Amino acid sequence: MSEESVTIAEEIHRQGADGDVVALIKAHVIGVGDQVPGGNVQQPTGENISGIVHSMNELEWPYDPRLLCNLFELSSALRPNIDAYVTNIDAFGHTFEPKIDLSADDANQVISNAMFLDRAHLHERDSNAPAPKLPNDEEVFAKIEEIRMTMLIELGTLKSFYNSCCVGIDFVKLRRKTRQDIEVLGNGFWEAIRNAEDRLVLFNYVPAFSIRLGRLGRVVEVPVRVESSDISFEEVQVRMRFRPFIQNLTPNQGGRRTWFKEFGDPRIMSNRTGNLYETVEDLKFTEESASPATELLHFSVDSPRTPYGIPRWIGALLAVMGTRQAEEVNFLYFDNKSIPPLAILVSGGRMAPQATEKIRTYMDEEIKGKRNFHKILILEAEPAGKHQDGVGRVKIEIRPLTQAIQSDALFQKYDERNADKVGQQFRLPRMLRGDIRDFNKSTAFAALMFADQQVFGPEREDFDTDQNRKIFPDLGIKFWRYRSRAPVTRDPQTLSTMVRDLVRGGILVPNEGRQIAADIFNREFSKIEDKWATQPIQLTLAEINVAAKGIIADETVTPAAKRLLPIAKLFVDLHEQLDGAESDTAFAVAKQEAEIEEQPIQSISVSKSDPSQIVADVKDEAGDIITIRVPQEKMLEWVIPHSE
Questions:
Q1: Are 261 and 295 in contact (CB under 8 A)?
Q2: Backbone angles phi, psi at 273, to 5 degrees
Q3: How far is 294 from 475, CA to CA, in rounded Å?
Q4: What is the CA radius of gyration of the chain?
Q5: What 3-state DSSP class applies to 631?
Q6: Which of these ranges, 35-44, 59-68, 161-170, 362-371, has the smallest mean pLDDT?
Q7: What is the distance between the terminal CA atoms of the chain, rounded to a whole angstrom?
Q8: pTM for the structure as a whole
């Protein structure tokens, strides 16, 4: 074991005494083609280096990041909690949700209201503008088509950007690495790289421990996009203060200090000195070897006393260090054990001169292995003197000392309590930390639901908000939202039954049921454009039954229902034949009908799961086999088709 790992507790307590902060970095340039400038972020080399340059413009880390990283690597309590955060918050990808559902029944009304609101805002800003009035149907229809085309373009832009915005890794991996930094150090950073047209094109992972925050600069006015209605945005000038960031390399590594500006800062900054310039030409003229600083996105676990983030487990710092010290004590026991397993006691004499060496050889070489399982050790001893009867008596006794030997690890309860303390800082149940004791299906499900709703869900929302408020406006996205996918913490079988019952009960239409199913199973289901998927299923079934009785003309039935009319009519006729008949007679008639080649019925039987239903396999006009379930008591009211 290295001396460094043993003295972590001492380093934590005396940190800050010499201002030693690690900055491990190496040149790393990324880009796409000739239009994207290289990034300024430098990656760590893995060398243990101390002694960086400090200045009045830099803010000290509240805790030494090098020691925090060491604690994470050596602690058995931190890794399970942090891995649970990384997996459940950032490992399931993302999706894009439309802000406006143009296929909804109230879409026209929503667009109409938004257009009227835009006109009212325009009239409020410009008194010469015409008085606001509600748009007509043609204007609303034209606006909807315009928004529809814009949404298609934006969706393509989003998919292309997030599929290629990282070099060497995908976006999920970038999120996972950043989340680990956030939970270990309280801070995470991305470098944002723009092309020659000032368009955002790439993100680059930045090792958080190598970055130091600078002091806030002067107030500058920047344009910020705000939502003025559901379909339009406007830019307003906002006074803001931006913070620089500094990445440090030590002189003995031949490195330098690299400056970054905060994401959204419109000013031109030197990446060598942090000085501000009016134009890029002024920067090049003054500093020939410098280039414009790139931008950093800062993610953190907020602290009320410092702009740096604070690890959420810092309150259990003593528990983390105590657990490590207890583990080291138990580990060192094997090297420093001082009690032998047994003792050979000789009384009334002494061992023969060769006996000691014989015992040592026997214990080292001849007692091991199954072939030596029954081998006997013979000990010889000489009496110290003779008794009155002239015979010397020697007593040899082998006494085990196992009762004095430590039989199990020390500090077991202390270690378990410390693990719970660390888990409480993350608000995670034991199961998510790898401890499945005392869990059953119900308690496990409740624990997962709690963790997702109270811990992981809000963290995903926080990340999504950053994407929607910082990245999407920069990309020019108006009609889409970024949403992180969540793990399926619900029982699919129970929810499937619930959705089916809601659809059958008319509370949900089939398309709404498919939307819920998409959220349950974390996959997209295509939208059905037929009319029957946008109305309660009872209406579709009623159209089938009414048309089957000849009450309405076939032309008034939806296409999907009309396709099933011949089958429904056949079932109605069959019901009339079975009406009032005994069970055996009824089935005899059904089988006879099925044997007629002209009839499309393939088979008919009583449902095994529900004896009150008749189940029939029929062939429709297209030749497809369709199963129809018909309650015997409501033959004319309930016909539910299921395509196989």
A1: yes
A2: -120, -15
A3: 17
A4: 38
A5: strand
A6: 35-44
A7: 65
A8: 0.68
